[in-house]
Amino acid sequence: MPPHRPHDDARRIAAALRARRPVTDAELDALLPPELRARSAEYWTPVAVATTAAGWLTDHGATRLLDVGAGAGKFATIAAALGELRVVGIERRAHLVDAARSLARSLGVAAQATFVVGDLDAVRLDEHDALYLYNPFSEGFYPRGSRLDDTVDVGPSRAQADIDRIERALSSLAPGVRLVTYRGYGGRVPDSYELLHTADFDGGRLRCWQQGRTRGGGWFLEEDAQGRS
Ligand SMILES: C[S@@+](CC[C@H](N)C(=O)[O-])C[C@H]1O[C@@H](n2cnc3c(N)ncnc32)[C@H](O)[C@@H]1O
Questions:
Q1: Ligand 1 neighbours (beta carbon < 6 A)
Q2: Residue ranges per domain, the chain?
Q3: Which of 76, 165, 185, 188 is geometrically suited to a Cys-Cys bond with 219, CB 3.0 to 4.6 A?
């Protein structure tokens, strides 16, 4: 029997994603280091959610996607591997950015999925025509031992400040910008946005919004992972 080569697995997975053939979470997660694989069900976007989100975005003409809180790069690399999107992931944990870059190289999408170490100060949201938010700030509301890890200083006041900042930024983005949320993002969506798609997965609700031209001053509420609204 020929030796098992992880590199071949990654190439096969990338080809399957490009061809829109099914890929399981176990197959994709096997490309991550073991300690990050173990956090996947809780923290990284499932393959079916990522392919649905990326499909909606490309159907609506998005080309430049920002993943706010990119983690180990699971969502961003899948979205890039489908072939139509260039994805930038912003992530404040440097060791996750290392893992994300490595995953992108394995899948052959290092040019299409790039990663920046930093927080919301490190990117301009208005340079992208689509944003993805998988409830990135919620861990700040968890008790210390339940967070992703202790390598960054997060807490409720920082998390709320980030949520407020995204809320304000969403109001000022250009008409046509798409927003995809998975399990909400902890904040509200301005009523200038139109809800284009909703899909329910075992892990939670995926929504796709598009910024419009008229603002009534109101908001849509999205529940976050804790069920707040
Ligand atoms: C739920 S995970 C989602 C990961 C990735 N988007 C995915 O779906 O596979 C959220 C990530 O956001 C990161 N994060 C949270 N707040 C952030 C901030 N203000 N700036 C940058 N990254 C942040 C966390 O470190 C964590 O890795």
A1: 43-45, 67, 69-71, 74-75, 90-93, 96, 119-120, 134-137, 148, 162
A2: 6-221
A3: 188
